[in-house]
Amino acid sequence: QVQLVESGGGLVQAGGSLRLSCAASGRTFSSYAMGWFRQAPGKEREFVAAIRRITYYADSVKGRFTISRDNAKNTVYLQMNSLKPEDTAVYYCAANGRLLSSRSSEYDYWGQGTQVTVSS
Questions:
Q1: For the chain, what percentages of helix, strand and coil (3-state, to nearest 5) are there?
Q2: 78: closest CA among 101, 57, 103, 106?
Q3: Over the Cα atoms of the chain, what is R_g?
Q4: Residue 39: HSE in the Cβ half-sphere, 13 Å Cα cutoff
Q5: SS3 at position 31
Q6: What gap in Å lies between CA 114 and CA 37, rounded to an integer?
Q7: To 5 degrees, how large is the angle CA 22–CA 31–CA 75?
Q8: pLDDT of 28 strictly over 70
Q9: Is the pLDDT of residue 33 over 80?
Q10: Selection from 48, 30, 28, 29 nearest residue 39 by Cα
Q11: Nearest-5° angle of CA 45, CA 20, CA 18?
Q12: pLDDT at 64 exceeding the cut of 70
């Protein structure tokens, strides 16, 4: 079992940057695919980015967001640049025991979420 804790959210102006972190504990971190999802009020949870051996991004964040991982630190990151008001959401870290996927149903473990608010 894996426990995930996100941090790094906050308030930022449009065009600014934030880096989210997700610290993992439990089973071997390096064996999991890791993903970031987000959910805005009144909207469905949507895929943002994922990483295992390769990275994968939603079209809405390509060129602006970068997912990375440091297996030695059991941590995955989401560097968010050129933020837009529409990026405002609660961001969730998730762990997938096998498959690199953009589908939330494929992920087994979830963090509590961290709020990102982008002002115009």
A1: 10, 50, 40
A2: 57
A3: 13
A4: 12
A5: helix
A6: 11
A7: 20
A8: no
A9: yes
A10: 48
A11: 105
A12: yes
User: Which pLDDT value is given to residue 77?
Assistant: 98
- Helix or strand or coil: residue 69? strand
Tell me if 73 sits within 8 A of 9, measured CB to CB. Answer: no
| Token reading at 28 | 């071997």
Q: Where are the beta strands (DSSP E) in 1-61?
A: 2-7, 10-13, 18-26, 33-39, 46-51, 55-57
pLDDT at 95 over 70: yes
Q: For the chain, what's the residue count?
A: 120
Amino acid of residue 6: E
Indicate the Cα dihedral angle 74, 106, 58, 28, nearest 10°. Answer: 10
What is the mean predicted confidence (pLDDT) over 26-48? 90
- With a cut of 80, say whether residue 37 has pLDDT above it: yes
- Sign of the CA dihedral with 37 first, then 40, 41, and 43 last: negative
